[in-house]
Amino acid sequence: MIEIREIPEADADRMIDFAGLVFHERVEEGDHEREAWLVRRAERIGAYDGRVLAGQLAAVPMRLAVPGAFLGCSAVTYVGVLPTHRRRGILTAMIDRMHADAVAAGRPVAALWASQGAIYGRYGFGLATRALSLEIDSSRPLGLRTVPDERPLRLVDTASAPEVVGPMHARMLSARPGGLVRDREWWARSILPSTEREAPGFTEPRVVVHPAGYAVYRTHEDETVRVADLVAETPAAEAALWRFLASIDLTRRVQAPNRPVDDLLPHMAADPDQVTVKGDYGALWLRLVDVPAALRARSWAAEDAFVLEVHDGRLPANGGRWRLTTGAAPSCERTDEPPDLTLSASDLAAVYLGGTRAVTLARVGAVAEGAPGAAARLDAALAVPLAPYMNDDF
Ligand SMILES: CC(=O)SCCNC(=O)CCNC(=O)[C@H](O)C(C)(C)COP(=O)(O)OP(=O)(O)OC[C@H]1O[C@@H](n2cnc3c(N)ncnc32)[C@H](O)[C@@H]1OP(=O)(O)O
């Protein structure tokens, strides 16, 4: 008999060991403190088989940038089930608890990075953002088509960085949805920790600041610069930052493993062969825990009205038909009218930030159009000027 209940804070270390077991990882000493901090900050859901912790899930209360608003968000992480207990419905039970907790706390969305794409669609999560992994060949000067903003750059120490660069990041979130609101502690522990698990052998983070942008990067003695975060308020500032990163002595490549799909860098390069797209991958999995609240909260690019029929196997309160009115004063109410579009909660989450097109999902057969052209109209209402982008590690 499996019992779902809170994992006490005192067992945070046990959760880190548990994650090491299911992810086949050894957590090094330097990373332990950061992991313990994340787990303590989270709502910790455990699945107990008697006294044995058989499954775990952590949900960190955060705020997610969506078009025109910031929504309470359960950032889900640390998900695992013991190999001796897999495929008995333990994950399903933990997700149900996470959903119930999010509803009770009034958080309309949940988000996660998935270890495998096949897991979370069944729970109403949809792939809402993609990301590019870019690399600059910086063994020669980076030629740019964009004239860099020549104002001076300066390096700031990591202790004072959040105060300097935090406001720029916050402004970016208002322009480009998909990221998490970062408080001081998030900056210190999550963005600027001295070591990064994903990048063993790299230095501690450096923060370079321009009057209209910043970059967080680490370097490696194998002559690599690795960019963890780069935000610019103008293309000219962005050009200045990339030129700086590509010109650091004793380095010859710049890796930027997580950039937005509409990143300017590949288009800025005078020689397109100097910037290579190394990867294009699914990033943020989003869940609309409260569909009407999420639809009312975001801003819309066009005035229109739709009847959406939503299928939600795990949160029945979201299911059924909704009359969505988009525009300056959005509304979302129950209706019995015939649907313009029929779609799963997972596909609704996938299109919600404007990063996936409803037309594409209709063409693959995932979204059904009751009214011809409704998917294209919904895309026009969902449209965002900048592609959604998630660059937080949780
Ligand atoms: C946000 C994050 O932390 S992502 C990290 C997720 N964790 C991992 O990948 C660690 C290693 N894996 C595990 O710990 C476990 O296998 C988990 C957590 C992925 C799944 O836990 P389980 O308790 O086995 O899942 P559960 O039994 O509830 O499965 C429910 C359904 O999902 C399916 N499912 C579960 N995991 C997978 C998977 N990896 N691939 C495909 N289907 C899956 C099951 O087959 C089942 O389908 P069914 O309802 O049609 O029978």
Automatic annotation (TrEMBL):
Keywords: Acyltransferase, Transferase. GO terms for biological process: aminoglycoside antibiotic catabolic process. InterPro entries: Acetyltransf_17, Acetyltransferase_Eis, Acyl_CoA_acyltransferase, Eis_dom, GNAT_dom, NAcTrfase_Eis, SCP2_sterol-bd_dom_sf. Signal peptide: none annotated. Pfam families: Acetyltransf_17, Acetyltransf_9, SCP2_2. Residues 2-154 form the N-acetyltransferase domain. Acetyl-CoA binds at V79, G80, V81, R87, R88, G89, I90, L91, T92. SUPFAM superfamilies: Acyl-CoA N-acyltransferases (Nat) (SSF55729), SCP-like (SSF55718). The active site is at Y120 (proton donor), F394 (proton acceptor). NCBIfam families: PRK01346.1-4 (NF002367). Belongs to the acetyltransferase Eis family. This is Putative acetyltransferase. The lineage of its organism: Bacteria, Bacillati, Actinomycetota, Actinomycetes, Streptosporangiales.
